[in-house]
Amino acid sequence: MYKLKTKASFDSAHFLKDYDGKCSNIHGHRWTVEIKVGAETLESDTQNRGMVVDFSNLKKDLKEIADHFDHSLIMETGSLQQATEDALLAENLRIVKVDFRPTAENFAKYIYDEMAGRGYKVIEASVYETPNNVASYCE
Ligand SMILES: Nc1nc2c(c(=O)[nH]1)N=C([C@H](O)[C@H](O)COP(=O)(O)OP(=O)(O)OP(=O)(O)O)CN2
Ligand SMILES: [Zn+2]
User: pLDDT of 7-31, one tens digit each?
Assistant: First the structure.
């Protein structure tokens, strides 16, 4: 089997609701997301001949997903009082709401699903919260 891997990064803040420890506070990470896609055979048409997929397209799609979160506060829906959320928005601060607790594990599945939804044969998606801490999702 052939496998391709590419990475993208974004900077954003998050916090873990109901977490007993420092991660319950708003803090930032340079998140790195890594996607691995595969194929048993290579493309044979002119443009993509000899490729699993064109790295340019793979990188562009992953970057689009990463850019959605860049320089934002990522928050789980319902994890702040409405008044707090409204006050942040009134200051023109960027909030991206997600319907999951924003852990590396949940982000890994989110990235997997997003890329699979764009038609890639995803083998694994990984999310680094720090260079040492990584979570992966595969099926
Ligand atoms: N399994 C998981 N555990 C934790 C996650 C996660 O996503 N999955 N996330 C956090 C926090 O977001 C936190 O930012 C990371 O915690 P921690 O390792 O304690 O922080 P640092 O890497 O910055 O470590 P230092 O010891 O401060 O250098 C917590 N756990
Ligand atoms: Zn964190």
Answer: 999 999 999 999 999 999 999 999 9
Global model pTM greater than 0.80: yes
Tell which atom from ligand 1 comes closest to the C-alpha of 19: 29
**Ligand 1 binding site (Cβ under 6 Å of any ligand atom):** 16, 23, 27, 103-105, 129-130, 133, 135
Signed CA dihedral, 129, 130, 131, 135: sign only: negative
Beta pairing partners, 75:
97
Query: What CATH number does domain 2-137 carry, 3.30.450.90, 3.30.479.10, 2.40.420.20, 3.30.360.10?
Result: 3.30.479.10
> Which of 133, 134, 137 to probe ligand 1 with, by most ligand atoms within 8 A of CB?
133
